[in-house]
Amino acid sequence: MGNFMKKYGLIIALAVLAILVLMPTPTGLSIAGHRVLALLVFSVIVWMTECVSFSTSAMIILGLIVLLIGFSPDPKVPGKIIGTAPALLQGLDGFKNSAWALVGSAMCIAIAMTKTGLDRRIALNILSVVGAKTNRILIGVFITGFLLSLIVPSSTARVACVVPIVMGIVSAFGLEKNSKFSMLLIIAVAQADSIWNLTVKTAAAQNLVTANFILKDLKYDVSWGEWFYSAVPFGIVMAVCLYFVLLWAMPPEVKEIENGKEIVREKLTEIGKITMPELKLLIISLILLTFWILEKKTWSFLGIGGDFGKMLIHPFDTSSSTILAIMTMLIPGIGIIEWGDIEKKLSWGTLFLFAIGISLGTLISTTGAGKWLGTEIVTVFGLKEASTFMIIAIMAAVLIIVHLGFASATALASAMIPIVIGVFQTLMAEGTLTQHHAVGMTMILQYVVCFGFILPVNAPQNMIAYGTGTFTTKDFMKVGLPFTVIGYGLVLLFTATYWKWIDLL
User: Cα angle at 297 between 445 and 450, to 5 degrees?
Assistant: First the structure.
């Protein structure tokens, strides 16, 4: 079935698109909005079936935006067609978005980490400290993932760094690659990375997609610190639960590795002392992290109270500070990366998809399709009378189910978050939800978007781990299914407690 959909997915998607476009436009929805929703369904089918590469799908979606939106009546000017040129500009709207620049800059940081080897050094140092007991090595993997998520804004890059180190440790310990211990560690690398993705705003592109839609549609700029403060307790509890689920699902054959600490230290000796490029990158990364943490923070000027006496510690948003960091890394004489490194190693296709995903989400909003669909969802599920708790419960469950068909959380966020915001805008218009709480609920549901725990194909980092040959899909699901259920339960628990206490809801 999978091969059939991969082979014929594009044809099926085009057929569905044609049927939806030819259907009568629903009452209250513009023709442009109708076609955008049809295009959204097309995109979801293409992304779920992986019938073409993600970068190819982005180009196809852009072309269809030109055709479908370009020949749609302008909802603002009766009797006028929007035109292909304005439609193309709308399709390219994502490229002028600061979130796009931030993702590109984050990729550059990941390239610098890989080139200098700083990420590998950090990982080995952590593993050298935790000890040789298998449960401590597991904890070391968790800590490594978290610390790297703070300074390496790419889940794929983080896992690509840690997996070879872990495999080297397994090999050095004399264990088979399909042993329970190696399964335990490699699955832990991937699953824990998904947890840290939701915890840190800059850890994953899908967070930046959502933050952009929140800014554009809900008129609120979520800072790095606000995201961290809201998500980190949830992430820590999730990590603790994952630790016990892993040990329950695949208990390791051994409790302690003989000479394990010495083996890791030998690997550290092999890479030698910290180099100047590594040191420079570490300093730049720590300064950048400080700027992220202190974003939108104020200090009291000369002890003067009130707004007059408060001054911003620094005026830079997340995107601007990250771009300045990349600029510093590229300056001749700094010696960390060159433009040639970016040209060769940057995933331009992923960056292109990210921009087009933003454009599609923006069109869902500007054509009124998001609000219309939001109204329909509110009516169908009876959300107008529902409590905040029930709204989160229903929509989180929908996102978890939908994620089963997606190989990219970025694509999932691009497709679903505009719809989520459309629901909240409907409830805001009804007076049952405030803008403040709409922002908080969108953030919570974005955490759920990062739940790529069930199948290896649900996230690129899972596929990197799967490529080691240490585990099967069944092994991954043995951990992922119960952990997803636990994660969903924790979402409900935090909705009823912590997120209420901090006024996120």
Answer: 20
Q: How far apart are CA 470 and CA 466, in angstroms?
A: 7
Nearest to 131 by CA among 273, 263, 267: 263
Number of H helices, E strands in the chain: 23, 2
Give the CA distances from residue 373 to residues 45, 109, 219, 401, 405, in Å, rounded to whole numbers and listed in that order.
18, 38, 20, 19, 21
Residue (of 157, 169, 73) closest to 119 by Cα position: 157
Tokens for 121, please give them.
Answer: 């050094």
Copy the structure tokens of residue 253: 């054959």
H/E element, 300: strand 298-300
pLDDT in tens, the chain (505 residues): 557 767 788 899 899 999 999 999 988 888 988 998 898 889 878 877 778 887 888 899 999 999 999 998 887 777 788 888 988 988 888 887 777 777 777 778 878 887 888 877 877 787 777 766 778 888 888 988 888 888 777 777 788 777 777 777 777 666 777 788 888 888 998 899 889 989 998 888 888 889 888 988 888 888 888 999 999 999 999 999 999 999 998 888 777 666 666 777 777 788 888 889 889 888 888 888 888 888 776 665 544 444 544 666 777 777 788 888 888 888 888 778 888 888 888 778 777 877 887 788 788 878 888 778 778 888 888 888 888 899 999 989 988 887 776 667 777 888 788 888 888 888 888 888 888 899 999 999 999 998 988 877 777 788 778 877 888 888 888 998 999 999 999 999 999 999 999 988 8
Which of helix, strand or coil describes residue 312? strand
- Residue 82: other Cβ atoms inside 10 A: 21
Q: CA torsion angle for 13, 23, 83, 36 (degrees, to 10)?
A: -50
